[in-house]
Amino acid sequence: MKIAVDAMGGDFAPHAIVEGALLVSPELPEQVTVVLVGDQAAIQEVLGDRPLPGNIEIVHTSEVILMGEHPTKALAQKPNSSISVGFRLLKEQAIDVFCSAGNTGAMHVGALFSVKSVEGIMRPAIVGFAPQVSGQFAVLLDIGANADCKPEMLDQFGEIGSIYAKYTLGIPNPRVALINIGEEEQKGSLVVQAAYQLMKVNKKYNFVGNLEGKDFFTDKTDVIVCDGFTGNVILKMAESVYEILKSRGVNDEFLSHMNYEAIGGSPILGLNGNVMIAHGISSPLAIKNMILLAKRQVESEVYLKIKQALS
Amino acid sequence: MKIAVDAMGGDFAPHAIVEGALLVSPELPEQVTVVLVGDQAAIQEVLGDRPLPGNIEIVHTSEVILMGEHPTKALAQKPNSSISVGFRLLKEQAIDVFCSAGNTGAMHVGALFSVKSVEGIMRPAIVGFAPQVSGQFAVLLDIGANADCKPEMLDQFGEIGSIYAKYTLGIPNPRVALINIGEEEQKGSLVVQAAYQLMKVNKKYNFVGNLEGKDFFTDKTDVIVCDGFTGNVILKMAESVYEILKSRGVNDEFLSHMNYEAIGGSPILGLNGNVMIAHGISSPLAIKNMILLAKRQVESEVYLKIKQALS
After folding, report:
1. What ipTM, to 2 d.p.?
2. Cβ-based contacts of B147 with chain A (< 8 Å)
3. Which parts pass through the membrane (chains A, B) (predicted)?
C-alpha cells in the first residue's frame, strides 16, 4: 500500500509533513509505504543527517500551489506541483491514497478533474469526526465542500456516510441522523424538512431522525448529516473550544478528542479514489494520525463500496 | 418597574420559577417588583410557610399552555393562561417585561399578536449570548426564530443586535460580524454572500466582516449574526459541551459561561415591548439571572431605541 502525502502542503510544510512521516514510519506494517510528494531538496533539508527510513519514498516535484491561489488556474498552470503530481499518481493507481494539508480548493478541484466523482454522486462531501462521550467518533458530513445543499444531497450524504462508518470505522448498521433545531420532523429550514422526508423512507441506511446541537457528542448516532456551512461552523467551533480550554490548563480526554490532531485527516467521499485533506496548520502529530486514518480507509476499500452501492 | 414571569412555564414550573423569584428578591432595588403570573394556589404551595416578599406580586391565572401545544390554537383557546394574561398585561403596559420558560412558539406568537413587531422589522429575532474569553458576552442572533433567513433579514439582525449591545450591554460602537465558513467575502452560502454585500455598506452599524467557527469565543466581535438554524445549533452545542465537561469534573470560568444558567434569558428583539424566553429546563438560578437581565433590558429602553432607529 502506498500512502502519498503532499510534502509541500500546509502552513508548516515541508517540515511538519516530513516530521509526521518520520513519526508514523516505525508504526507502519511492512507492506505500507509513505510517499512524500514534493521538492527533494526541501525534504532533504528537513531530514538533515537522518537517513530516510525504508518505508518512506520521495517523488520529486518542482512546483507548489500556494494557499491563496485560485484552484483551477493553479492546477492548470502548475502541472509539476505536488498536488497536480499527486493526483496524476492517484489516477494511474501508482498510489492508493493522496493526502494534503495544502490548498483545499485545489485538492477538491484536482480530485474532480483526475479520479472524478463516482457516477451517481451529486456532490462529493468532506468528512469530519465528532468526538462522542463514549470515546468513539461519529462521522460528520459535509464539513465545507457544499455550503448550499439540496435535500437530495443531504439524503445522499446519509448513504455515503453510513458506508464510511460501516466499512472504515467498522460500525455495524450505523445510525444516521440529520442536524436540526428540534426533534420533530416538521422543524427546521425548508431544506432539512424536505431532507427528512427523503431520509425517513430511504431503506439504504438506518435513519434515526433529527439531532439537535445538544446531542452532537452524546452517542445518539454514528453519522451526522448536515450542509457544509453548518458542518464547518460546528467543527471549527469544537476545535476552538479545545484550544481555549487547553490554553486555560484544562485537561480532559473527551475534550482532547476535539483537537483536530486527534484524527488529522478529512476524507473527501464520493470520489473514484481515496483523497484526504487536512488542516492548514497541521502538526507532525496531525500528519501522523492522518496517515494512520488513510491506511484504515484504503484497507476498507470504502470508495469501491460507495461505487457498488450507487451502481 | 414590574418584571412579570410566567410562573407556569418550564419543565420545573411553578417550583423553579417561584424559587428563582425568591432568590432574586433580596437583590432587587426598591422600585423593582417581580410579578408571578400563574395559579395562585400552585404558587402558594411552593411558598409553603414562607411569606411572600414585599417585592413579589401574584397575578392569578387559571389555565396553562403546555409545552407541546400548538401556539396559535392554544392562545385562542386559553385566554386565561399565564402566557395570554402576561401578554395582555404587557400590551396594557401594566408590566414592563414579560418572561417565560414555557412554550416558545406560544411566546413568539403571543408577542406578535399583542405588542406586535416594530414597524419596519422584517422578523423579530431571538438573542443568545456567546461567552468570550475576556469574560464578556457577545450578542448572538438569531438563535431559532427564523430557520430560513433572507440576506435583508441578516442585515437587519446586525442593526438590532448592535442597538442591543450598545444600550443593554453598554458596549460603545459594537462590532458586528457575520458567521461564515471563511474570512473572504465571496465565501459561504448564497444567502450569507448576499448578506455580506448589504452589511458592508450599511452605515448604521460597525460591520467587521465574516466570523468563522473558530472565533466565536475569541473577542473578535460584540454581535454575531446568523440565521436561526445556525444560531440554535451552536448555542445548544456550546451548552452541551458545558454539561459534558462539568459531568466529567472540569471546572473553568470560561466554560461555566457556556452554562445556559449564566444568563438565563433570551430576549426576542424587534417587538414593541420587552419579551424574554428561557430554556424549558430553567432552574431557579437561571430564572434569577433572567430577571436580572430583564431589569437591565427594561432600564436600557432598548425596544424604544430600535423603534427610533427604524422610524
Report:
1. 0.95
2. 181, 187-190, 192
3. none
